[in-house]
Structures are given as structure tokens and as C-alpha cells.
Fold each of these.
Amino acid sequence: MTVTSVHDPSHREALWELEDAFERGDLVSVFGRCTVSYEGRAASDLGAGDRLLVLKPDGAALVHTDEGRQPVNWQPPGSEHHAAVREGRLRVRSTRDNPDETLTVRFERVHQLSAMAVTGGRDLELHGSEEDLRTRILERPDLVETGFEPRETERPSSAGPMDIFGVDADDTPVVVELKRRRVGPDAVGQLARYVRALKEELGVDDESDAEDAPAVRGILVAPSVTDRAAERLADRRFDHVALEPTPAE
Amino acid sequence: MTVTSVHDPSHREALWELEDAFERGDLVSVFGRCTVSYEGRAASDLGAGDRLLVLKPDGAALVHTDEGRQPVNWQPPGSEHHAAVREGRLRVRSTRDNPDETLTVRFERVHQLSAMAVTGGRDLELHGSEEDLRTRILERPDLVETGFEPRETERPSSAGPMDIFGVDADDTPVVVELKRRRVGPDAVGQLARYVRALKEELGVDDESDAEDAPAVRGILVAPSVTDRAAERLADRRFDHVALEPTPAE
DNA sequence: AGATAGATGTCGTCT
DNA sequence: AGACGACGTCTATCT
């Protein structure tokens, strides 16, 4: 059998089951009334309440309430789970180094504990990412602009790698920044850094950087931009090309 | 009793339990072998395997494998859960509008299904946040610099609200940007936008913005900065003050 | 509803 | 191990 499960166990019973599950490398879920405290990158305390504790064999720990996509407390993979009975109660502790942090869950009562040996696919096939957008442009550069010629992807610069580097119909260098969804001002800042770095690298002076024909162009490719982002694009004389990661149906 | 739990139920049994749990507003966990597909902001497919499905009464749905802090698939709060038996199998679907997205989990087999009525504390007391850092500085402005005087927090500007606005010992305006942990170049860009906005607002011309005494100063308060961030700070003639959100023990 | 910035963000990738 | 940027980021706050 792949699943073990106990209903309303004593704290000591719960401890045995937990230790066995850790030993087997099971994925564990514990329903119960507990308090939670965390100390590490920050520090937090959570009063008594019913929660779901998930313990993974890779060291991840998650404490979920009845609300939210995010766990109310957690510990990243690579941590170590320890269970014990202290003062007559089940205590589960998950710790890691670098940074030093500890998550402690103290159960007043355990309602349900289940453990399962996990097998099977872990590989997610995801479509619609920034990489899809890059592929799309490399296959059809004219989607960016007539005459646009990609020269390099992930081109290094002193400001980090730029998404796509190329030239336009006039052979002017072009830095393309890709975003898979609507963007705010931060993306323009990122593009500006790459353009500035490339200008420095090419030794462009302010003279040759004419009002109507910049020496290095910046193009932000994204489905859409916020008003503030549009302002900043105009300030910097960058262009925006509206494009989705995947063709509209 | 607050918890209901079934072991190796038939798909139809599982369906009844799920519908009851939705009705009661329970927090639900399902262990089983399933395939998962998502369609919405992106699209993804996940082949058969053992996973833990968590369904929350607020509409959140999480699919967890045995690895990682993040669910391999999910649906945010506000979604609607629907369960059905299709082709002899339990199918759980979670949908929402704006954006339109759907998560579908098809179970080949349900190993364990538990549901719990959740009561009790949801309020987390968290320490060590950016707000703690702000409080710390407002109580002891000299931690930033001798003579520093905070005047306003969240002061509005055309580039958005700045964390702390104040003046230094020479009555020069100071924009303070707070970060709770080590920062990269992006934080400097953010600070630069606020400083530029304030200069424009105050009508500072390049004349009065002397080499050694800027008309508006920028200070980045963070535990530490990366090399690249330090360069960009130097370029802009901004200062860095090393400070933690909470005093070191 | 959209916009903006924080987060114990997490996660992959590259140096 | 640190740095950097993407993410179906999520989440709170403000307009």
C-alpha cells in the first residue's frame, strides 16, 4: 500500500507515523490545531488555529490556512524535518543553514495525518513564456519591425545579458527587451541600462546621438505597457512593439 | 467531528465527499494519481503521477509534487471549484474570470481524501520587514546620518511615493529608499527615479547641482548592496547606509 | 479594475 | 556561493 493515514492519533502515535514517513521519503500532510513560529530571514508568530502542514521529502515545509495561495509560514527545500513530543505535544521543526532559519509547528491536537510515497511525472510542459516570445521573434523578425535583423540572444554587456541584440533596416544597433505580459516602469529601466551599456561599449558620444536618429535604439516587446511605462519609453526615445508570447487564436 | 477522511474511495464516493466539503467550506486535501492541465495566462500540461491537491474554501487550489516550495500548478483565491465524475474518473476543475483561467485535475485514482473545518487565528505577527526598518529610522534618524531629519513618509512624487523624504544637516533635500535586505541595481534605479522627480518638482537646474553638493541627495538604506549596485550608486552620487530592519542581537 | 512596489518572495542559470 | 532576472509570480495598497 502506498498511503498510510491515521485519524485523531495521540501525539505519540503521530510522532511514530511521522518518523516512519520521513524514513520512507513520503510526502506528508497533517491537519491539526497548532501554533507556528519562524525565525530566520525575518521572524514571525502565529497563534493557535486549525491548519494544514505539508512536509516534503526534499525538505520543503508548508503551513496553510483556509485562505490564500501562499502558505502562511514555510521552509524552503533543503531543510531538515524533525519531529518530537515536547510537553505532551507533537512538535515538528524544520531547519536549514545559510541562511539559518527555523520553522516550528506545535500541535495542540492532530486531527489527521497522511503520508504517501510519490512516484511519477514531475516535468511540467509550459507554454506562453518569455522564451516562447523570443522563439517567435527569431522565426519572424518582421513582427518587431520591417527590416529588423536579430544578431545575438543573451548578448553580454556590462549591465548584464540583453534579450535580443540586432540591427534595424538602417543598420542601427537595436537592443530588444522581451516581456511576456503587460509591463510597468521597471522594464523600461532595465532596457535603458542595456542601451546605455551598449552606447558606452560602442563609444557613442552625445554628438552622434541625434534627436531623431539615436545611435543605439531600444525596443520593448510586450503585450502592452502601463501609462507610466509609456512616458518613460517616450522620454528615452524607445519604441514599444505590442506582441504576445503566443499567436492569438 | 471536524474532520472527515476517506481512504481509497471510489471516484463516486470521492465526489460526494468533495461536494459535501465544498458545501461546508472545508479545507480539503486529496492524495492521488492524476494528470493536470492549465489554460489561462499561459498553458501547461503535466503527465500522470502522485500528487497532493489542496482546495481552499476561498477558491485557491494547489497541486503539490514531492519537490519544491511552489505548487507545480495552482489557481489563485477567488476561483470556483467544481467536482465531477467523467469517464469513470474524478475530475476537479477550478476556474476564474479576469483573467480567464482554468485548472483541471483528472484523477486516475484517489488514495486519500480529507476535509477539515478550519477555525482560529489567521493573523501572522511578522518582524523584520521594510516597515520595521522605517520605524527604526524614524525613531533614530541619526542611524542614517548625523543631522538627518525625516519630514515625510510615502511622500508622493510623479515617480510614485518615496519611502522617506527629509533634509540633511545642511538642509539639503534627501530621498531615502529602504530595502530590508541586500539589493541589486534595480533599487538604485528606483531611488534615481524619485530623486529625478523631486529635482524636476523643485526646479533644480544643472547649475545649482554642483559636483560635490547635489541639490537633492539620494540615500539607499539596506543591509548591503551588490558590486553593480555600488557602481550605480557611485555614478549617481548616491550614498549607501548599511542598516538591518532589526537591531543585531 | 488598473497600477505600483514589497516579499522570509521562489526558482533557474551563469559566473 | 553570489548575482541577476523571470515568474501563470502573489499580495497589499492606493487611485
Note: Chain B has two domains: 3-116, 130-242.
Amino acid sequence: MTAGKKVKVRFAPSPTGDLHVGNIRTALFDWAFARHTGGTFLFRIEDTDTTRVTPEYIQAAIDTLKWLGLNWDEGPEVGGPNGPYLQSQRLDIYATWAQKFLDQGDAYHCYCSPEELEAVREAQRAANVAPGYNGHCRDLTADQIAAYKAQGREAVVRMRMPDGTTTFTDAIRGEVTFDHKFVPDFVLVRADGSPLYTLAVAVDDILMEVTHVLRGEDLLSSTPRQIRVYQAMGVKPEDYPTFAHLPFVMGQDNAKLSKRNGEVSIAWYREQGYLPEAICNYLALLGWSPGDDRENVTMQELTELFTVEKVHSSPARFDMKKLEAINGDKIRALTLDDFLTWTLPFLTKAGIITGTDAEVALVKKALPIIQERIVKLDETPALLKFLFVKEFAVDADAVSKITDDASKDILKRSLKELEALTTWDHASIEATLRAALIEDMGLKPRIAFTALRIATTGSTISPPLFESMELLGQSACISRISAALSL
RNA sequence: GGCCCCGUCGUCUAGCGGCCUAGGACUCUGGCUUCUCAAGCCAGCUACGAGGGUUCGAAUCCCUUCGGGGCUACCA
């Protein structure tokens, strides 16, 4: 199938909500496959279900893909030779093909009402036979049709599924066969004239010259229906796209990932401070591996290493802990400038800074000491807050730890030493404090520095103490310690 | 129920008949380091769903079984 042709892969979500982890994993594989093969990545919006798809969700899907860096060659905003790329703008195309199928006898009008169809299914379930359309309207006579029309019945367009089987080779699962006995005649066009997924997806994949369909395994059993449409379109088997059905991403409870068993919206991950590259790296490892022990890969490396042959056929469980670990790795690998760029929005959103040049400069100086201690960007405000607060106050739960006499002694001595210090850098601060508190007073470092940490940063947890004090500045340190003494 | 897909440590995976007393990563536990928190380093725990074959030899091939999942819409 499609051998020799230039690869074209499509990602075609139906935006009935925010794109979720599963969608993104599919998009990522589509993208990686296209880039690996030097092919085209096509992005199409399947918005034929107008009751569930909204313009907001469509825009959100576009933004999400952009944010992740999954750039497309054909699709919304960038256009392309086979547009439009929103199915809602291609209705006339589907109508034309549906009519052709009707004319050819591949499809027929079905006048059964939803209620009648449901009754049939109910009976089938009761009789323990496979539920599905019973072919009631397959061979209606002209009189029967006239009678239905006279009753004012609306018709759907239904595809005739001939006896036999459909066999295709899935690039991930191998040869798969479906007996048409279990693939009932299916609806192509609703009674209101709007197309269904089964029609639109098949028509578009052919018209847009898609060579590879990598999609979720939930669509595996709909493949024979797509192939049936190709046949009716007159497409030769060697021109069918190659199918590859990706395994699911499951939640912790082994059910398809959903809001109930894990956070699924990419928007949520973005707000939490996950890096797009971390999300992509982690998702790439769900159902795929480079084949060796490599795990940390850049987007560039992913496109070099990705092949469908290495994709699994078994589902994978989503593990937030592993994502966090990878995110931490990616954060630590960031250059200072990139780290700054990623961090600033979190600090401004938290109200820690407003964005002045002085603030940004201080943040930049402080970032190196927190880079290896955060896993997500949203941890940054809490760690750097002490540098920017206008009204400094010691955390309520830490106050009691520095009001005892021993702590007061530590703070008093520290104050004296720091006031006398003429060179204000972390090495000098540390040398002075160690000499006075550890060597002279004989205190344990842990005890001595905890008291100072609370007094200067307001918390029992902070970036390294001496670096923090350097950044804070001599006068601020002195005034905070003085204030702590009168608590 | 029927059809289809899937089954290696808790999780993601390596493995494609001998290199496997099953390797790596995350998690977890213990230790080292240490000014807190991290990071880093070291160690440990834990897996081929089960049962039959085939073979000198099976995690790897075949069959059965059990288990999980998907589909079964005028959703996608």
C-alpha cells in the first residue's frame, strides 16, 4: 500500500472538548512520523458533529498544538493545496460523494426512524444476536419509498455492506480481518443532510492524499467501513492509506484516561508548569521506545528515532510521577535565558513581580539556585517570594522556632557579624557566620542556619541560605533579623 | 452477548529460540553527601497471567484458558 509515495500523515481530532493526553500522544506520533520520513504533517478538524464541537474548542486545539511545537504543513491557519481543513467547510464535497454512492447503488435511503432502529436493537439484544442494522430498507420498491415519503419520513443515506470480509494490514497489529456479518450497513448522511464521520473521514483522507493513518485503537473496528467508502469512491486498493492503530493511554485505574482518573487537559499541565518538551518526551515513551535504554530525548532526537515499527500494540498507563521526573530533568537542562523566559509568567501571575527590569534582573540572578530544586515551574513563586515581598513576615508555623532563647542568641550574634561585614557575597557571609556560630559558639550547622533561614526568608524551606542572603542584600537581611529578634 | 485488540517488575519499557539466575527508567525503601528542600551517588525490593505443547533449549513459536480493553449510534 502507498509504497513509494511521499508520506502524508494527518492528525484529525474532533474537538468536542480540550485536547487531552490521548489526543496529544496521537498528534505527537503523527508529527514524529511525518518528520522522520520527511513527509507532510496535515492537521484537519473533524467538526461534523455540530452539536458537540465549538469554535472555542477548535481554537484551543490549534493553540495546544502550537504550544507543544507540533507544527503542521497543511491545515488551519497555514492552508495548503487540499483545503479547506475544517470539515464543516467541506459539506458540499461530502454531499456530492454521497449522491454518487446513491447513484451507483452503493448506498441507499433508509427511512427507519431512530425509535424503530432502537426497537430492532433491543430485540436483537434480547434474542442474543449481534445488534446492528437489519437491512430493512436495503431493497425498497418504488411503491414502498413513495409510501414512506407520503408519511413525511426523512431518510438517512446508508452504505450497503456487501457479504464477505475486509482484511487489511495494520502497521502495528499486523493483518486484521473483519467479517461483514458484524459490520452492518452504516449511515453516511444524517436525515438533516449533514455527513457523518465515516463518510467525511474516508473522503478527506483520499482527497487530501493521506498515505498513513495513525490514530487511536478505538477506531480499529471502524476501518472496514472506511475501506468500504474507498471502494465506492473507486480508489484502488494500492492507493488506500496504511493504517496504524495506536494503543490507548490509560488512567491509573486501567480505564481510558478521563477527568475522573487523572488530569487529561493539556491546559492543566501548562498551568502547572510542565514544559512542552517534557510532555512530549514522556508521551513518546507511552507505547513507544527507541529500542535501547534511552529515555531523555529532545524533539529533534524524537523525529530521528521514531518509527512505527517500534510502536507497541499494548496499552500504557499514564504515570504522573514519571512525567514529573522528566519535567525536572528538562528544567535542569534549560539554559538560564530559557529558564527565565519560562519562569517569568509564573511569577507575574502569582503577583510576586510586576515585570520591571530590576525585578527581572534579580530573578535572573536567583534562578541558578532554584533550577535543580523544582520539578514544575509553578513552584518558583514560593521559592523566590522572599526576595520580593513588600511586607515581610515569617511564616506562622515557623515563628515558634526562632522565639526561644537559643535562637535569639544565634540571631543576635549573626546580626552583629553581618552588620560588620564589608564584603557582601555568599562566600564571605558563609565564612563569617561559620566562624562565629559554628566554631566560636559551637553550634550545629543545622541548628544555627535554620534559625537564620527562618529569620531571613521567612520559611523553613528555602534556596541555599548564603546565596539567598546575598541576593536579599545586606540591609534587608539586617532589618529582617532585627525584626525577628523582637518577635 | 457478539466481533476485534491486548497481556514482562507497582508503572513505562528492553527482549524478537541459547548473550536472561530477565536489563534500564520512574516510584518506593535504606545509606552516603549535606545549611533546609532538592539535586547527585550507592544499595535493595519486585515481573515473563495460567496450563498444555513444539524444541537439545522458550519471556521469545503453536494451542487452550484466564484477565484487561475497544467497538457494537442519524458520536468520533
Note: Residues 383 and 462 of chain A are 6 Å apart (CA to CA).
Amino acid sequence: MSEKKISMVDIARMAEVSTATISRVLNKNGRYSPETEKRVMEIVHKYGYLPNLSAKTLRTNKSLSIGVIVPDITNEFFGKIVRSIENTVLPFGYSVFVCDSHEDEKIETLHIQNIVSKNVDGVIYIAGRADVGDIDQNFSMPVVYIDRQAEHAQFVVQSDNEYGGFLATEQLIRSGCRRILLLRDRRMLFPVRQRYEGYCKAHEKYGIPMDESLIVDSTVDYTLARDTISMILEEESLFFDGVFATNDMMALGALHALQKHHVRVPEQMKLVGFDDISLSEFCNPPITTITQDTEAMGQRAARLLLKRIQGGSVPSNNIMLPVFLNKRGTT
Amino acid sequence: MSEKKISMVDIARMAEVSTATISRVLNKNGRYSPETEKRVMEIVHKYGYLPNLSAKTLRTNKSLSIGVIVPDITNEFFGKIVRSIENTVLPFGYSVFVCDSHEDEKIETLHIQNIVSKNVDGVIYIAGRADVGDIDQNFSMPVVYIDRQAEHAQFVVQSDNEYGGFLATEQLIRSGCRRILLLRDRRMLFPVRQRYEGYCKAHEKYGIPMDESLIVDSTVDYTLARDTISMILEEESLFFDGVFATNDMMALGALHALQKHHVRVPEQMKLVGFDDISLSEFCNPPITTITQDTEAMGQRAARLLLKRIQGGSVPSNNIMLPVFLNKRGTT
DNA sequence: AACCAAAGAGTAAACGATTACTCAAATATC
DNA sequence: GATATTTGAGTAATCGTTTACTCTTTGGTT
């Protein structure tokens, strides 16, 4: 608890060499004999010496840590991405500062100041706010974005949301739906706009006329989504035979509203969600949804960031990851 | 992207004072006039100067960062604790290294070496492995544990798992159950042992005889829990009229097994879970469960750690947080 | 044999903050 | 008015690494 930590000069004294040599041995920079290496490493292991990263960072401007800014770490979807990022960077000695922004610009700014002060080598920014257009100026270091409009940034990793929207809508059409209600996150973040695009394209391809009144805005919130659908059912003025919700939380809200009004799913009404969170798998009936490869998202983003941190100029890179339809009980 | 970061000497030059004065102004350590302060702060703000934490850490041995070791960040329960920890420490300028150990000792050790090298000021360790008995020697810094056996550590935050187990069992008894199957995580981590204690105490209090064959071991895994219950139902040799699962994931597995075998819940069979993850709320019927106050767990652990980091000797402290019964559709 | 290159290792100056000393000027105390 | 204290501020060492130089020894080339 209190014994002072051992430093390079201690090791140097014991090995009877200079700190320069210790440093060269530890960093495998050559200019030392095999015998010296052996002697040094033995002492290093014997005392469990760990280099002081603050000193190293001060000297080299590399901190071996990165920041990940995430809208909500309690959300399984983001948790999976964070985990995958961590798995990818850990073997290279990197640690990650996780910064939950709560989608609040003030908190986000605080987090960013903190980690900039701490000399992070780079940042992975997972978009969750609508207004991230000018976030870039906050950083004077490599950043990789997840789920951000590619036109606004150079290094972006994202799912093929448009194709996902298409797949979801197509599945509903193939199941016989002709009037598909689109339950949409009203913040209209970039991924949602893309999913909407896919919804339109599917209508086009199958020659099904679109109807503005079938497009309903709600929030990611379960409750509001449920109540929105409930209200529509009670008013009885809008006819629809399928629902595409732009995420699973809202899909679940819709499902429960339908069940409360004794609309049988999937017999009378089909439903498709998006994201594939475990809720959609474990509810009853399990919800057909579009699966995003969170593992790959984290891994690709992390690898791209590491490459940018290590190696000079990496060409602008926009990584689009495939999604797939996960057919379950609601279609 | 490339302009060098501004340092204290730059500020000092511009304000025409020494770095010592800048330092004193920034740390509000006295020994400077109001005029000097104003002049310095104007320049600091004008250039958006942020101190270099690596240098500061090297000199002062305080890094303003802590590590949180967590068994699985994709699990909503742990995500909530992490978020609460972050919220608590952010106003004090701290950032948190989140380390997902995957309950794997090797990975955990790697993480710990990394963050020790990075001079974290303290660690919050959320137990998830069975064998954390001798983890302490890895740290030469303040640690606060969550969900660890209090006899093994000085600073522990935990829910009142025993009372939770009691409440769950009592609820089943009051709903008329007399033969309550205990579906238990076979790793028998400390919290699970406590919940089991509560299960026993409730039987005792209500004078209901316990039956060893009603205690069934499974894993946290949804699938195995489901298949375990399925098998028992198929064998038809064991009679029971209620299930207490030591966590919600297993409770959900049990629920689906029961439904598959056309056992009506809650009419023919009652069910109670533990943790209150959103899955238990949004399945059908929603599962009665024991709610843990994750918000408080994170907050109390973080506050305790900060106190230990800042102030000399904090008396040994074992914080026990209340739980409550969340009655829903399965009882 | 004379010259040169390479290998092995040391010296000391950074990196950007903090802080124990020092010191002059201003103010307080009697 | 002489002395003591407080105030405001500077000097320089320090934290633990890395690395550009330097230097000596060894071995290779012709």
C-alpha cells in the first residue's frame, strides 16, 4: 500500500548499467549485448518493475490510452461496441477511457477536456446527438467516428443502415404487408435517415405507393413508442398491416401496444425492428429485426484508429459494414 | 491536427510572470495578486490552455483517473454501475478506465498492469469471478470492491442480497407456494450464496420444510437455465409450484421453459427473479423481481474511493444497500 | 599495419508541471 | 521610526523516462 514504486534508476543501479541501457532493453531498440539484456530482464521480472507511463508520455507524447465517447453505456448495443474496441486494443497495451456523454453536450465537453488533458492518443466517437456537425474542432488528434454522416468526417465506421431499412421493409412486403407504418426516432439521426431511405427504396422496388400519414415520429423511449401506437389504434382512423420500427426498443413498445389492443402478431400484423438487442430476442413473440455486427464495428474502428495513431497518413476511409435480416416470430 | 499544444511556459511568457505563478493561480494556492490572477486567467482562456496531466502526474503522483474492473460491460446491470461511477467522479475531474475482464484472470491481469503503469489513483473492482480471494496483492493503491465477501476486504459496497433472497421467497410463499425450486448460478459467487441464505431463512420463518432436491444448479446463461427447467418438467419426477431464480436471465429462461410446456404463469406456477434488468420488465408476463439500486452502488463506491484517495485514513467501511421487491406479472 | 565501421554503453538534456526556498517590497506592530 | 510579518513573485530542483551525442572497444578491410 505504501512502499514506493520501483523506477528505472533503481533497476539501472542494480544491473550496474545506465538508465539509457535499461530503456533500450525494454523498448528493444538495440545497442546492447545479449548478456546485458538477460541481466536487466531478470531484475525487471524479479521486482515486477512496470514503467511509469506518465513519464513516458511526457517524453514521447504517446499515452497508450484512447477515449471512447458513447451516448449511453447502459445500452447493450453500445456496450458491445465498447467491449469489442477494448478487446482489439488491449494486446497493444492500450487502455480506454469510456466517456458516457448522456447525449449531453455539456457533459461531453467536460469529458473531452479531461481526456485531452490526459493526453489520449486518439478518440472513437460514437454519435448519439443530433448536432455533432462541428465536433471536430474539439480534437487535435486522430478521431474515428461510428455512425456519423460520412460527408462530415474522414474516418467513419457504420452499418449499412439503408440496406437494413430496405431488408426490413422488404421482409414486411413479402409477408404480405401493403401499408407499412414507419415508427421513427424523431431526432432523425443519420442512421435513422438512412433506414428511412431504405424504407422508401423498398416501396419503390415493389411498386407500393407510400403514404405520408404512415410515417410516425416517436422517441427511442419504450413508453412513448408504446403510447403512440396505442393512440393510433384507439383513434381507428389509420389503417396499416405492418410496422417497421427504427430500433428494437420502439419495436417492443409497438408490440406491447398491439397486444394490449388484441391485435394478433404476426397473424394480423407484422413487425420488424432494428439493432438486435437481446430484448427483441427474448420477448414473446421474438421480434424479427436487423442485426448489426457490433463486434466488427468496434474492431474496425479500433484498428483504424490504431493505424492512424501509429502510422503517418492513413487515407480517408469510410467503412460500411453489412447487416442482415434476423427472421423471428413477428413476420 | 498538428499545431503543438500550448504549455505553461507559453502562458508564463505571455503573462510576463514565472511558471510558478501560473501554477499557483491555476491551483488557487495563494501568493499572487488579484491583478495577476486576472491577467493570467484571461490568457489561459484566450488560448484554451489545458494543463498536461502527464507532467502533473509525474510530479504529484495524482493522475485524476481511476480504473473500474467489470466482468461484462455489455450487461446492463454493470453498465448502470459504471455510468453511476462516472457521473459521480466527473465533477472532480476524474476519468475512468473501464476494464472488461470477461471474468478471465489473464485478461484481468493485463488490464491491471496497464492501468497501474498509467498511475491510476484507485480502483473499483466489481467481482464476477469465483476466485478473487487474493486479488488484493495486485494493487498498491486504494481499492473499493462491489459485491465481494466483506470478510475478505475492507471496503465493500453491496446490496443486501440475503434480504433480497428472503423477500423473493417470502413473496412466493405468500402467493401460496409450498415447494419452491431454487434455480441457482452454479458458480456460487458471494451474492448468490447470500440469496440462498435468504431463501433458507424465509422457509424457516414460515415453517416450510426445505427439500434438497428443489435446489438446482445452472449457469447465468439463458439457454442452459431454460433447458434445465425443460428437462425437469419432462422428467415429471419433481413437483414444485414456484421458482426463485438467482438472477433475471435465468428467470427468463425458466419462464420460457414453463410456457413451452404449457404451464401457465402465474396461475399454475409463480416465478421471481433478481436484479431487475429491463428484460424482466419487458417480457410477457413481466417477471416479479428484486431490484438492486445500481445508481447508489456506483455512487457510494465512487464516493468512498474518492475519500480514500484524497484523505489519509478512512475507517474500514462496509456499505450495505437496501433492495426491494418489484411485484409484477409472475406472482 | 593503418583505417573504418559497428557494437555496446554512458552522459545529460529534454518533456511540462509543482514546490521548497529565497527575496524584495509593502504593511503591520509596538 | 525601527522591527516583524505578510504579500507577491522568481529560481531551480525534481518527478521517470527517452534519445541525440559521445566515447571506447572490437573486428573487418585493404
Note: Residues 17-21, 24, 30-33, 36, 55, 57-61 of chain B lie near DNA strand D (CB under 10 Å from a C1').
